[in-house]
Amino acid sequence: MRKARWAAAAAGVVLLLAGCSGAKDDKPGTSRSGSSAAPAEAGGSLDAAAAAKEIEDAATAAGFTEEPSEGVPASLKKCAVSWLPDVKKAADPQKSYDATLAALEKGGWKQTREHKEKTSVITSMRKSGWTLTASSHGRADTFLVIMFNASDNSAECEKAINEELAKKQKS
């Protein structure tokens, strides 16, 4: 089970980094309410601490507790946030996932894209120059991984993320 959690955390970082490097290519999508949503403006007032607090507040209000994880590399602490809920402690993890996204939308995050396939859902949201990638994979009765990862879309952070990816590819 520990290997599965490690793999989930690694997948979260990959999603996070992919979301950063592809942020320029995001097209407006359909929000959970069915309305068209444009990406939020770049260069807003969020920083990593504020983004982490918004995710944590929304997730804990929805019934999640945070599961300790390695998080993002130290070199990306200003540029990225990773929040993994302990799905085993949630009464209904999928309901908590949906409630977290709804709370984030109420807090100003705008959905830009959602992809559903079998038992997986990946949702992208934007706010103040940040992109949030929320994902739910699996089912509560078998194996379920839920992740909330956010990244700063600034050129400085994009450069730092690309440098971190290059380091990972060399090792």
Layout of helices and strands, plus pairs?
Layout: H1 2-21, E1 29-30, E2 36-37, H2 48-61, E3 80-83, H3 93-106, E4 110-117, E5 120-127, E6 130-138, E7 144-152, H4 155-170
Helix pairs in contact: 2-3
Task: Describe the protein's architecture and organization.
The chain has 171 residues and is an alpha+beta fold. The protein is 37% helix and 25% strand. The chain contains four helices and seven strands; from the N terminus they run H-E-E-H-E-H-E-E-E-E-H. The chain has helices at residues 2-21, 48-61, 93-106, 155-170; strands at residues 29-30, 36-37, 80-83, 110-117, 120-127, 130-138, 144-152. The strands form two sheets. Strands 3-7-6-5-4 form a five-stranded antiparallel β-sheet, sandwiched between helices. Strands 1-2 form a two-stranded antiparallel ribbon. A hairpin with a 2-residue loop joins strand 5 (120-127) and strand 6. Helix 2 packs across helix 3. Residues 1-43 have low confidence and may be disordered.
